[in-house]
Write a structure and sequence with these properties.
alpha+beta, about 15% strand
């Protein structure tokens, strides 16, 4: 190195260093110009970037040479650019060079010292997600097509302003409400099939009755009734029409729906009643009339809003449903009104008072503290009181809401399985055959009954989540959840009846066990088969 430094002149070293520095500066400027963030000044004036302005000056001579051939294309490009919205990145028509895209970076935005959302920053500008702005400030916006391009339309309200056509008159149109369409608003969940008014989701997703929205809905339909043409009415059939054989005309009814001729006392005639309780909002409901050997479909097919929510509907039960959003007071008053839960409630409530009276009487005459032999019986009697009380309360308050229905039946299933545990405790103490006493089966009998109670309660509660999507699997799981604890509890009784029939015949309690098993099997059969309401829909609506 010393020899090389001695042979090279110091002036030559200075020139080499100067050239190296110049090359370094040029490369640095080149890199910085490629990565710099560009900010638009005006759409027609290009961008304030030194490298681009130098290129614009350099390309000026080229434009002068090819001015005649490129003038028309540039004018067409500028017109197209005026129609299209400015886009980050693309080509600048005034300079003929490619403009680099705008550079963004993510930034955390702290909202009122409560929560943080992700935003984007472009220089001194900060952009927030519109999905958050829409909910936070209660505004509206959407991307629409305009002249072949996407643009974002923002508004403070979804309502359009209509000019009043004529002076207001009490018998005429109310202001400009003939142009209102309340039922198609984003904040209208549906039109209730019971009340016939909209359910609003403006302040809550669960849906509720909003008086102002209901008033707008009524005024709009009243005004449209005065301004629009009367609806087309076509009579398919009157309720008294019959064919040549003296039978009512045939109608093809979709699967899961029902139609019947029902007497209307207010009109002194029969009316056709068409019910589709299991229809989903995306499905269509229609009637098809069969005339002779041909099939004719008529009528408008529209979205059907069922008066009975699918979760409340029972197979074969057409009428007698309570309002799906009843208050607690209305549920209590329904005990004294005829509906499809009235008999179900009272057939559980009356046995509760009977069992409670026997339980209190037993407590009164029993020395609980010293008579330990009576403890299993008292536990069994206590669960016998809890089970019908919980069941009657579940059927009473199950119509308050969808969630209340699930919660009520969760408690009902828990009480049923608790009763099976009480039965196991009583069987273990009083009905075990002598051959099974002090065996391993006897030692773990109650412990496994506790496990069965927990598992069966969880399985029966889980089956409710499959009620709509998989009704058959739901029914199967629920039957298994109830049948398995009962079978386990009855093993000592079955052992006594099947293996020792001679000794069992001498026991007076055996007859009661036989009747109890027979009634349990019959009740399970009717419950799983939906009989008799399945054979005659609408005939057993109040005996559910």
């Amino acid at each position: 190195m010393r020899c090389l430094a001695a042979r090279v002149n110091y002036k030559t070293l200075i020139i080499i260093c100067a050239l190296f520095t110049l090359v370094t500066v040029l490369l640095w400027n080149r890199c910085s110009s490629d990565n710099a963030t560009s900010f638009p000044r005006r759409l027609s004036n290009g961008f304030r970037v030194d490298g681009l302005e130098k290129k614009a000056v350099a390309s000026e001579s080229d434009r002068r040479v090819n001015h005649g051939g490129r003038q028309q294309s540039e004018e067409a490009f500028l017109q197209e650019q005026q129609k299209a919205p400015p886009v980050a990145g693309g080509f600048d028509g005034s300079v003929g060079s490619k403009v680099l895209g705008l550079k963004y970076e993510e930034i955390d935005c702290l909202i009122n010292d409560e929560h943080t959302i992700k935003g984007r920053r472009e220089g001194n500008e900060v952009f927030l997600p519109f999905t958050w702005v829409e909910k936070y400030f209660d505004v509206y916006g959407k991307v629409v097509q305009h002249d072949g391009y996407d643009r974002f339309e923002f508004s403070h309200s979804y309502s359009k302003v209509y000019a009043q056509r004529a002076p207001y008159h009490p018998d005429g149109v109310f202001m400009s409400f003939e142009g209102y369409n309340v039922e198609v608003r984003d904040r209208v969940k549906c039109i209730s099939g019971v009340e016939g008014v909209p359910l609003s989701t403006q302040w809550g997703p669960q849906g509720y009755f909003y008086p102002i929205q209901i008033a707008q809905y009524g005024l709009s339909h009243y005004s449209k009734n005065l301004t629009e043409k009367p609806p087309h009415v076509e009579v398919y059939e009157t309720a008294e029409d019959e064919d040549r054989n003296g039978k009512p005309n045939a109608w093809a009814v979709p699967k899961g729906c029902f139609m019947a001729s029902v007497a209307d006392k207010s009109r002194f005639t029969n009316v056709k009643q068409f019910i589709a309780p299991a229809m989903k909002s995306a499905q269509r409901a229609s009637l098809v009339k069969l005339q002779g050997n041909w099939r004719q479909e008529r009528g408008n097919r529209g979205h059907y809003v069922s008066p009975v929510l699918q979760v409340f509907h029972e197979q074969g039960i057409l009428f007698g449903y309570r309002h799906p959003q009843s208050s607690a007071t209305a549920c209590m008053l329904s005990l004294f009104q005829m509906n499809n839960e009235t008999l179900n409630i009272w057939t559980h409530l009356l046995p509760f008072w009977f069992f409670m009276w026997r339980f209190v009487t037993t407590l009164w005459i029993t020395d609980i503290q010293n008579d330990s032999y009576s403890w299993p019986m008292l536990v069994y009697m206590c669960t016998s009181c809890v089970y019908p009380l919980a069941s009657s309360c579940a059927h009473t308050f199950s119509s308050m809401s969808k969630n209340a229905r699930h919660i009520c039946y969760f408690l009902d299933y828990g009480a049923v399985n608790l009763f099976s545990l009480g039965s196991a405790i009583a069987y273990s103490a009083y009905t075990f055959p002598d051959g099974l006493v002090r065996t391993t089966f006897h030692d773990y009998y109650v412990a496994l009954a506790v496990l069965n109670t927990v598992l069966s309660t969880g399985l029966s509660c889980y089956s409710r989540f499959l009620e709509i999507q998989k009704p058959r699997l739901c029914k199967l799981l629920r039957i298994l959840a109830f049948a398995f604890p009962y079978t386990w509890d009855s093993l000592p009784i079955l052992y006594r009846l099947l293996l020792f029939p001679g000794k069992s015949a001498q026991n007076e309690a055996v007859l009661y066990h036989q009747k109890h098993m027979l009634m349990t099997l019959l009740a399970s059969f009717f419950y799983s088969a939906h009989l008799p309401e399945r054979l005659a829909p609408g005939r057993f609506d109040y005996i559910d």
